[in-house]
Amino acid sequence: MAQEATTIARPYAEAVFAVAKEDGTLDQWSEMLDFVASLMQDSTMQRLVNEPAQVNSQISELIIGIGGDKLTQEEQNLVRLLAENGRLQIASEIARRYESLKNRERGVLDVDVTTAFPLDEAQQQSIAAVLKSKLGRDIRITSSEEPALIGGVVIRAGDLVIDSSVQGQLTKLANELEN
């Protein structure tokens, strides 16, 4: 289902990005997409959207009403389109893909760094500097801890995965010994 959501979200994100880029409203659209995505995380809203008796126009007007004057006419139209097409449930995926397009446009790459122990600011900056020199883009790091890694680091930057964790090395060694 996750792959399907990504496939469905892509054209919406690309269309919104094209409009936002042309209008110079990249950040405004980010806020709007984040708003709708966070609203769709609410359990009450999810029940309403998934209720068969609910009319799509009622749901879209509810979202637009909650957004109030913050939503432009184009943004309201997107909400209506998503509701009509039954795509409100993938709003977070649309927002994520849009942010990826926006970051690429601005030369920024989001990188997830997972370590066995928390990274301090200096370590994050060091990783960011190395990745920037290798990838030629500004790096924005999100770090998390996974004690099962034992030691080392796993770096995910788009499709690139660098696994230099102890767990990853042990798995690789086990695979080589099996062959």
Q: How does this structure look, described?
A:
With about 180 residues, this protein is α+β, with helices and mostly antiparallel strands. It has 2 domains: about 1-105, Peroxidase, domain 1 (Orthogonal Bundle); about 105-179, 3-Layer(aba) Sandwich (Glutaredoxin), CATH 3.40.30. Helices cover about 65% and strands about 15% of the residues. The protein is built from 8 helices and 4 strands, in the order ααααααβαβββα. Strands 2-1-3-4 form a 4-stranded mixed sheet, with helices on both faces. Helix 1 (about 1-25) packs antiparallel against helix 2 (about 25-40), helix 2 (about 25-40) runs antiparallel to helix 6 and helix 4 runs antiparallel to helix 5. The model has no long low-confidence stretch (mean pLDDT about 90).
The low-confidence runs, each spanning 5 or more residues with pLDDT under 50, are none
Shape: elongated
Q: Identify the CATH class of the largest domain.
A: Mainly Alpha
Q: What is the H/E order?
A: HHHHHHEHEEEH
Helix percent band: 55-70%
